[in-house]
Amino acid sequence: MMRRLAACGARRIVYVACDPAALGRDAGFLRADGWEPTAVRGLDLYPETHHLEAVAVFQPGPDRSR
Asked: Where does the signal peptide begin and end (predicted)?
C-alpha cells in the first residue's frame, strides 16, 4: 500500500498512524521513494493511556522524479 501511495502523483501526503512505531516503519517506504517529512506531531488523544497518535506530512524531495 505504501509503495502505491508514494507513486500516486500527489503533491503532499498526510499520514496518520495509531502508533509512532508504525509511522517510523512506513516513513521508511516513503523516504525510499523520494518523499521527505516536512512536519511530524504526536497527539495524545487518549490521555492516561499508552496510546499516542502520530501525524506526519510528506512532500516530494528534490531527487524525486515524477
From this structure: none
